[in-house]
Specification:
The structure holds 2 protein chains of 2 kinds.
Chain A (H helix, E strand, L loop, with lengths): L6 H10 L18 H9 L3 H11 L3 H7 L21 H14 L14 E5 L3 H12 L3 E5 L8 H4 L8 H12 L4 E3 L7 H9 L2 E6 L5 E2 L12 E3 H9 L13 E5 L3 H12 L4 E5 L11 H9 L3 E3 L2 E9 L2 E13 L8 E4 L5 E4 L2 E4 L3 E2 L32 E3 L2 H4 L4 H24 L2
Parallel strand pairs in A: 1-2, 1-4, 2-3, 4-16, 6-14, 7-8, 7-14, 8-9
Antiparallel strand pairs in A: 5-15, 10-11, 11-12, 11-13
Helix pairs in contact in A: 1-2, 1-5, 2-3, 2-5, 3-5, 4-5, 6-14, 10-11
Chain B lengths: L8 E3 L2 E3 L3 E3 L8 H10 L3 E7 L13 E6 L2 E8 L8 H14 L4 E6 L4 H13 L4 E5 L12 H5 L1 H14 L4 E4 L8 H10 L3 E4 L3 E3 L21 E4 L4 H13 L7 E4 L5 H9 L2 E6 L1 H6 L3 H16 L27 E5 L9 H9 L4 E4 L4 E4 L9 H5 L8 E5 L13
Helix pairs in contact in B: 1-2, 3-5, 5-6, 8-10
The chains are: A alpha/beta, B alpha/beta.
């Protein structure tokens, strides 16, 4: 991870803040963080209050500070841009969270238990946030996850250079200290498991199972082991599985895709010693879903960006990948006002040498959700919710995060978790009032 | 930068190549240091105060503390610096060396006696070392001995008495350095004049406490568990220095040349002191913060100013601001104004709205949709607090404008 601010740097940066009236930076954070509050508290030397202001609103305030594409959110709205550079809000936020860890200030305090318990399935950003907020409401929140430790993508997929496992663990300790219970290596897979949870006395279940399957390109790889699925490879790298780096070392790598996962895979390949890494994307720079900050830092690492280029065939000889056949595209406006549509340009087909291809065209929901027979899914296998609270077709079952919205940024999953927790607390309170 | 020839000024009969001196402090502690300051461009030095060898000087450790404001370091500086801790012989040897090596620079010896005979001896020894002038230290704020340092300025008669002893001992010009820690600085100044002083230097540091430890409850600067009220300097005290120089400059009977001290870092600061009546200035904290090199931009800035104003000599502007310094009852209250907003350049932070609402006349409304203030000029107090917090300066977005025939704005009854 890049180094965080020191106290002096944070104070200096906060001193540039204009301390706006109804500050635009604090409107529209998907995780409901209010930078104007914590920056003002830092400015007036109330560091403890500043750390509380972050964590009270966003239990993953540290993680968000590191991975959030702030350049397109709070920092984009910063009024100081009118006279210079925007305030580096993410860096200040990260400093305050780390300051609280380093000084053993616990900004969040556990609530008095009210005797009710709620199950959360999936210990990623949405699940962790929901659990933290339920715990603050006095609920005994139990988080089930099939992996051996909590954190989801944050711990098992995000490259170490972007978000270190140690950093996430510190933030999860804050959540654990609220009384949240984690049951790891405990998958909740099907209808029977779900029923059992209710029988065990859980009053509600929050499904936050994420998007753990890579979409694949519809191209035959002819059995070549050098056509790799991005997410699976990132997981291997994160586990430091033997041979995961060797798959790309000294080789020419092509990554296909334009999202954060594609960027992560490209940068990781370069850092793992790939000779050359090119990112193939069929639309233009402006359509890339990845955050601008991450794309630019990938360019700084020496990654080549091949835009308006679409793979059409893998050239495999004797089971060995030799090249990728590609075609140039042109963009046509989409009919429904969505992103523009890439259309292949006839006669521009050509071949690019490649030893390894990493496919990262997108992420899909984990298989597990399909087995909850009474929870309705859409055609993309995403859980259908009735409203912003995340209520599903099934009573007392809520859902949020990537499992509902598809692969997205951490802050949005955090927002989902917060809204669901509020709805669940409201529901428990309403049931408590019934005779 | 070579065009400093028009910066010369005459002060107490001594010709200075420029009006900028080191003041008596750690920055003028040895001839080696002062030589480097001269090389950098300082026109003179008031050498570190010399006392008699009879009093053994040991400096507390630490001896200074910085007063910071957010990320701004050394807005103020507290010190418990004593007189020179070097043997008196070494100091006079250094003074002799300085005058011999730098004949065009002005060397002033600062002395501090604890008895009449000490004042006389130190003055004679200084003159014998060949210095151009004397500065009598009547102003160190952290002295404990009665009749010494700042306590001399407090006992007005002693100022006259000690000055007179020195006057009768030496022929070179004498400056009395006075403290701002006093009700009326002109009183000891008149005693100095009557005792035979040729000029006044001020201010010495302001007695202060620059902070208190929240854990150990020990004030700064913390010398092994104890603090003391002692001298405070730097940009934070410049307004006090300007006030004291102006008081002396305005006094009807004083009429002595002045050397201005307190928070000087730039040519602008120097000019402000000169406009209030100082012919020369002295600097320490600016050097403690930035080194001797600050003099380069001071001299260059003064030269450009003199050139732009067509000044033959800086002496033409000494005291030029004094006729404009009046008691508050001489203000023209028939004229009122308003704060004018150039909203084309507004970035929409709303700080003007906050301070007008909480500290001004509540004449602003906040248009949250447009993110701009809406001004009701009829309610504007023209207090200008909005302009103090507006981040758009150079040129300022909010400016003062006279509003002819506008009556003074009085807030109505609240309920």
């Amino acid at each position: 991870m890049e180094p965080g601010f020191t106290l002096a740097q944070a104070v200096a940066e906060a001193s540039r803040c204009l301390l706006c009236h109804d500050a635009p930076c604090s409107t529209g954070c998907p995780a409901n963080t209010a930078p104007d509050v914590f920056i003002r508290k830092l400015r007036f030397r109330n560091l403890q209050g500043a750390a509380r202001a972050i964590k009270e609103r966003n239990a993953l305030g540290g993680v968000c500070a590191v991975v959030c594409p702030t350049d397109g959110l709070c920092e984009m709205r910063c009024v100081a841009s009118g006279i210079g550079e925007p305030i580096r809000i993410g860096k200040i936020q990260r400093f305050l969270v780390e300051w609280a860890w380093d000084t053993h200030v616990r900004p969040l305090r556990a609530a008095k238990p009210n005797g009710r318990k709620v199950a959360i399935v999936g210990a990623g950003p949405a699940g962790l946030t929901c659990a933290a907020q339920l715990a603050k409401g006095g609920v005994h929140a139990v988080v089930f996850d099939k992996r051996p430790e909590p954190g989801g993508m944050l711990v098992f997929a995000l490259p170490e250079h972007r978000l270190s496992r140690a950093f996430v663990r510190r933030e999860i300790e804050d959540i654990r200290s609220l009384g949240v219970e984690f049951r790891c290596s405990s998958p909740v897979r099907g209808e029977d498991d779900l029923k059992r949870l209710f029988e065990e006395g859980f009053r509600a279940v929050y499904l936050a199972t994420g998007t753990w399957r890579s979409a694949r390109l519809d191209l035959p790889s002819h059995g070549s082991p050098d056509v790799i699925e991005a997410l699976a490879w990132l997981e291997q790298l994160k586990r430091e599985q033997q041979g995961s780096r060797a798959r790309v070392r000294d080789r020419t790598v092509i990554v296909v895709g334009g999202g954060d996962t594609a960027i992560d895979a490209a940068v990781c390949a370069k850092r793992a010693g790939a000779r050359e890494v090119s990112l193939l994307y069929r639309r233009s720079f402006l359509e890339m879903p990845a955050s601008r900050k991450e794309i630019l830092s990938a360019l700084d690492e020496g990654i080549h960006l091949l835009l308006l280029t679409q793979p059409i065939e893998y050239v495999v000889r004797d089971g060995v990948l030799e090249a990728v056949r590609v075609v140039r595209t042109t963009l046509q406006p989409a009919d429904d006002g969505d992103r523009s549509r890439p259309v292949p340009l006839q006669g521009t087909e050509h071949t690019i040498p490649a030893d390894v291809v990493i496919e990262a065209p997108g992420l899909l929901p984990a298989d597990d959700v399909a087995k909850f027979s009474e929870v309705a899914l859409d055609h993309n296998q995403r859980i259908i919710v009735r409203d912003a609270s995340g209520a599903t077709s099934r009573l007392h079952v809520f859902a949020g995060g990537d499992a509902v919205r598809g692969a997205s940024i951490v802050a949005k999953a955090v927002g989902d978790g917060q809204r669901a927790a509020r709805a669940i607390l409201d529901q428990l309170a309403a049931e408590g009032r019934q005779p | 930068m070579t065009t400093t020839k028009n910066l010369g000024i005459s002060f107490c009969g001594i010709e200075f190549e420029n009006p900028v001196m080191l003041s008596s402090s750690p920055v003028s502690n040895t001839a080696e240091m002062v030589s480097r300051a001269f090389e950098a461009g300082f026109g003179g030095v008031v050498y570190k105060s010399i006392g008699s060898d009879d009093v053994k000087i040991v400096h507390p450790s630490p001896r200074m503390a910085s007063y910071d404001q957010g990320p701004h370091k050394l807005v103020g500086l507290q010190n418990v610096e004593q007189t020179s801790d070097r043997p008196i012989r070494d100091n006079f040897e250094d003074l002799r060396y300085l005058k011999r090596t730098w004949p065009t620079k002005v060397v002033v010896s600062s002395i501090m006696g604890f008895s009449k005979s000490e004042w006389r001896t130190l003055a004679l020894a200084s003159e014998d070392a060949g210095v151009d002038m004397l500065e009598l230290n009547f102003s160190c704020p952290h002295m404990t001995v009665e009749g010494a340092g700042m306590k001399v300025s407090h006992a007005h008669a002693l100022v006259g008495e000690f000055t007179n002893i020195v006057r009768n001992a030496v022929k070179i010009p004498i400056l009395a350095k006075l403290t701002p820690n006093i009700t009326d600085i002109t009183e000891p100044a008149m005693h100095a004049k009557n005792g035979g002083a040729d000029g006044i230097s001020t201010i010495n540091t302001v007695a202060a406490l620059s902070g208190v430890g929240l854990e150990d409850h020990v004030p700064l600067l913390n010398v092994y568990g104890k603090g003391a009220m002692s001298g405070y300097s730097g940009p934070a005290v410049k307004p006090i220095g300007l006030r004291c120089i102006a008081q002396l400059g305005l006094h009807r009977e004083l009429g002595l040349p002045l050397s201005g001290i307190g928070g000087i870092e730039t040519w602008v600061d120097v000019l402000e002191y000169m406009l209030c009546g100082a012919s020369t200035v002295q600097i320490t904290t600016g050097v403690i913060h930035y080194g001797y090199r600050i003099v380069e931009d001071i001299l260059e800035g003064l030269s450009y100013y003199a050139e732009a104003r067509g000044l033959g000599s800086l002496s033409e502007i000494v005291g030029s601001a004094l006729p404009n310094i009046v008691p508050t009852d001489r203000f023209d209250l028939s004229r009122q104004g308003v704060a004018c907003y150039d909203l084309e350049r507004c970035v929409g932070c709303g700080q003007c709205y906050i301070v007008c609402h909480d500290a001004g006349g509540q004449c602003l409304r906040w248009d949250g949709h447009a993110r701009r203030p809406v001004v009701d000029e009829h309610k504007c107090l023209s207090c200008m607090v909005c302009s103090f917090v507006c981040p758009i300066s150079a040129p300022p977005l909010i400016t003062y404008k006279e509003a002819p025939n506008k009556p003074p704005v009085i807030p109505p009854v609240s309920v």
